[in-house]
Amino acid sequence: MASKNDFDYFDKPKNIRRLWFMLYVACGLTVIPDLFTTRHAHFWIDAFFGFYALLGFVACTVLILFSKLVGLILKVKEDYYGG
User: Fold this and answer.
1) Rounded to an integer, what distance in angstroms lies between the CA atom of residue 81 and that of residue 83?
2) What is the CA radius of gyration of the chain?
3) What does the alpha-carbon distance between residue 66 and residue 78 come to, in Å, rounded to a whole number?
4) What is the enclosing helix (H) or strand (E) of 59?
């Protein structure tokens, strides 16, 4: 089995900064196309700049929180199988 030193990519501060930078770039890239598109809003709220990027972020956040809640509800005890 490999030691901890073989898998410490996410422990290095340099790599953590790179990952945060890539996250910021990815978030920025989701907003840029909104500058060049013509919106035909069906509701008042989807006419705002960056609405669909924000909607995607909120949807992912809600999905993660919901899955954590379901995980708490469905979690079984360690001695579930009578061991």
Assistant:
1) 6
2) 21
3) 23
4) helix 51-74
Q: Which stretches of the chain are DSSP H helices?
A: 13-31, 51-74
Contact 10, 16 (CB under 8 A): yes
Residue 43 has which token pair? 């509701």
Quote the pLDDT of residue 38: 84
pTM (2 decimals)?
A: 0.62
C-alpha angle 35-50-37 in degrees, rounded to nearest 5? 30
Can you tell me which residue has the tokens 């709220």? Answer: 45
CA distance 64 to 54: 15
Rounded distance between C-alpha atoms, residue 4 and residue 67, angstroms: 29
> What is the phi-psi region of residue 82: left when phi exceeds 0, alpha when psi lies from -120 to 50, beta otherwise?
left
pLDDT classification of 20: cutoffs 50, 70, 90? very high
